[in-house]
Every structure is written in structure tokens, then in C-alpha cells.
Amino acid sequence: MRVRVGYLAWIVGVAQFFVVHRIAESAWARPYSWARNNISDLGNAHCAVQPEPEPRYICSPEHGLMNGSFITLGVLLVVGVVLTGGALWRTGRTAAMARLLLAGAGAGFVTAGLAPADVNENQHVLGALLIMVAGNIGLVLAGFGLRERMPIPLRWAAGLLGVTAIAALGLFLSHHYLGIGMGGMERVAAFPLLFWVLAVGGHGVTRRSGRTHEAIPAARLSRAG
Question: Other C-beta atoms within 10 Å of 225: how many?
Fold first, then answer.
């Protein structure tokens, strides 16, 4: 039950984030763009022209909802890391470091939500670095830290997505957007972690449910014998 709650925490955390993201962007009078706008723009508390890293006008009526979503996502990421424990992770330093860094990404989302970019920029940047540096390094290490019984595609995906996200972060910070815009490149740096967590959570819940249904007939046969 404990492990199942951990998987569900990941699913709920990521799902609510994307739902709230859609609600917040839909509230903009000037259309919000995944290419031209940062994710953090949705949480900015004031309406103003933001000159860096690319000039754009930001006015997010649902910034409070978005910041609440950042905090919720961060808390549930940490809950998932803690509760999945030995069911998902190997013992040893690599797995321990992967879990610590993924929890650090969760702390980053909480920090970003508590400190909107236009209220406390330094603290918000710290949160973003925890997400896109610590979280993505943790994602790479997760490929080596998962238990052997986890599907190979999930283990390989962790490493590949982590490397892709780290490369995207480098491009984002150097202002090389490769035609997908500032916001697009930021998403390539931030979203792989969320997609992987959602996939692992979905696999964990369905696999454990399947085991439960298989165990019931087995128990009945045992009693009948």
C-alpha cells in the first residue's frame, strides 16, 4: 500500500501540473506561447514587460493557482521518492544519489512556487536549477539505480531523457533555441523528468494492481486444496 501511494503521488502531481498549466495559460488576455514564454511566466505575480532572457509582456491572472501547482508537484515528487523505496530502487550509492537528486528537484518546484520570478528572482532561479540540474542528473542516475525487475525501456529512458534534458538546458542557457523558441527549449530541459515520473508511476500502479488480481485466485486455490 505504501509503495502504491508513492506511485499515485507521482501520477497526481504531474497530472495536476499539466491541467493547471492549461488553465493558467488560457486565462491570459494576450495569448500565452509555449515557444515564446517561460513556464515560470505563468506564476509571475505582476503584469509587466520582462526583458530577459527574451523581451515579452507577462500578465498571468491565475498566477496563484500556478504557484500552488508548482508547490503541489514538488511535494508529491518528494513523497513518491520516499515511498517507492526498495520496491523501485536498488541499494547502493547510485540509487541513493538518484533519489536524493530527484527529491532535490521536488524541492526546486516548491521553491519556484513560493518565490515567483518577479518577486524573488534569485530564489526562483535556485529552484529552477534544482529542477533542471539536480533533477536531470538524478534522472540519468536513475537509469542505473532502478531494480532489475523494472522494464528495460524505463531504465533506458531515464538515462536518455536525462542526457537530452541536460543538453537542452545547456542550449537554453546559451540562448540557442534551435527554432523552437526560448519556452520550447526550456520545456525540453524540464519536462522529460515529469514524463518519466508519470510513466514509472503508471507502470507501478498497473503492475501492482495486476499482481493483486492474480493473487486472489491463487489464494482461493490454496484454500480449496
Answer: 5
